[in-house]
Structures are given as C-alpha cells and as structure tokens.
User: Fold this.
Amino acid sequence: MANVLNSIWNWFSTDAGAIGILFTILTAFWTALRTLAKRRAELRQERLKIFHQLIKWLVAPDETGNTWQDCQVGIIYELRNIPEYFEPSLRILSGLRVTWGALPIIEKRLKDELDATIMEIERKSKTTRHRIRQWYRDFSTY
Assistant:
C-alpha cells in the first residue's frame, strides 16, 4: 500500500501530473460555469414569458369582454416578486393607476393593491440600488 501511495505522490509531484490535475480542475470549473450560465439564461427567458403573460392577464379582457378584478389583484401582487422587471412594472402600474383611477367601475381594493404594489416596488428598487452602490464602493476600495 505504501508503494502505491508513494507512486501516486511521485506522479503528482512531476510537471506532467501537476499539469494534468490543473487541466482537469479547469475543465470541470469551465463546464460548471457554462452550465450555470445556460441555466441562468433559461430561467431569465422563462421569467420574461411569465412577466408578459401576467401583464396580458392584467390588462386584456377575456373572451366575454370582462376583466376579473380578483385575478387582477393577485397579478398586481405577484409583480412584486419579479425584481428584474421592477422598472417596466412600475411604469405599467403607474399608468394603470392613472387610467383606472377615473373609472368608477374599478373597485377600491384593486386601486389599493395598485398603490401598495407601487410603493413596495419603489421601496425594493431603492434598496437594491443602494446595495449595488455599496457593493461597488466596497469593491473599488481594494
């Protein structure tokens, strides 16, 4: 057993062994990075489709010409959970608040949910921007 371990150690200590190990580690690392990048792109594409579907359900009437305010309240709430689309969500919701604010048919709870979501997205956006600025300040000091 000692001879086997000694042989393995001798192989690792040579240049060829070290290069082989380094090449294997780099290959595994590169493969993992590529896999993660591909998965991130797939998830981003999937979230984009979800975002567009939510917006469609929010503003488009169904085949009978009605919109269901219960569903709209849920959709408005869910827009709080898609941070990469905070900016367009905020613009869309602010526009809807102006448009729907003048309509007497729109229920108060829908308007309240719009206001609450707008405030939440604004709060989260400011927090995220602050974290990014702080990270950049911390990183640039090194």
